[in-house]
Design goal:
alpha+beta; Carbonic Anhydrase II; 13-stranded mixed β-sheet; two-stranded parallel ribbon; 6 helices; about 30% strand; binds zinc ion
């Protein structure tokens, strides 16, 4: 009897961990209905950023994912290879100065803030609603081989489930007011979600200089869904070392995926001055 009870408890703990990790995977949070339930992809192992379940094993671990696709992210952006495209315009960002953050969660892969609907960007005449922001430390994208201390991903999704991510690099420097605001809800344990339900001016987190690189890539976490429009701002924002450390302590060490081959893709760039 005792053994049965113990086994039941162990099973529940395992099931509970699986549910926590799986239910928080990036695509699931985006509520992309076409994506298979992560529990169906793999019942036993969960992806991580190292070892036997690290990025090199995501494709085999997550059967049916696109992690072995040819248009994956992140990439190293080489500025001299980026095509200047005169048809590109500044990103039409429609964030209110009172964006409402619904909650903050630690999904075991990153710290993520989920937003209520209402703030959006317009890309190629299509509206993409802001869904969530999260962090990678150090950065996933590199620019001319330079890896920044922190990269913030602002994930947007259109009504027909297309994904666009704005990427903002952060370098160590002055204390950032918006980061101070975001970090007042930390620390947060793995698997924990806290309500925020407070207004926030996300515009303050955008770099002043709005030049950017853009290319077609993927989610950088399983299921590595492709056809994601990436917009990587050329200029970083400043955050203090303490602010980087606060996030670093709560996220897996080096929660970044390595550079993926660019293959036949072209990176375009928007510059305000040619
Ligand atoms: Zn990300």
């Amino acid at each position: 009897m005792k053994t049965t009870v113990t086994l039941t408890i162990i099973s529940l703990v395992i099931l509970c961990c699986c549910t926590n990790n799986n239910s928080n995977e990036e695509a699931n949070q985006l509520k992309i209905e076409e994506q298979p339930e992560p529990a169906q992809i793999n019942k036993d192992k969960h992806w991580t950023y190292g070892g036997e379940t690290g990025p090199e094993h995501w494709a085999e671990l997550e059967a049916g994912s696109s992690c072995d696709g040819t248009h994956q992210s992140p990439i190293n952006i080489v500025s001299v290879d980026a095509i200047s495209d005169a048809t590109l315009t500044p990103i039409n960002v429609q964030y209110s100065n009172r964006v409402k953050i619904h909650e903050v969660t630690n999904n075991g892969h990153s710290i993520q803030y989920n937003f209520e609907k209402g703030d959006y960007i317009i890309l190629n005449n299509q509206q993409y609603d802001l869904s969530q922001i999260h962090f990678h430390e150090p950065s996933e994208h590199t620019i001319n081989g330079v890896r920044y201390p922190l990269e913030m991903h602002l994930v947007h999704i259109s009504s027909d489930n297309k994904i666009a991510v704005l990427s903002i690099m952060a370098e160590e420097g002055e204390n950032s007011k918006p980061f101070h605001f975001l970090e007042q809800y930390l620390p947060i344990n793995v698997g924990e979600t806290k309500p925020v339900d407070t207004y926030f001016d996300l515009n303050e987190n955008l770099p002043e200089q709005k030049d950017y690189y853009t290319y077609s890539g993927s989610l950088t976490t399983p299921p590595c869904t492709q056809d994601v429009t990436w917009v990587v701002y050329k200029s970083p924002i400043s955050v203090s070392l303490d602010q980087v450390k606060q996030l670093q302590e709560l996220m897996p060490l080096n929660n970044y995926r390595n550079e993926q081959p660019i293959n036949d893709r072209i990176v375009k760039q928007y510059s305000s001055v040619y």
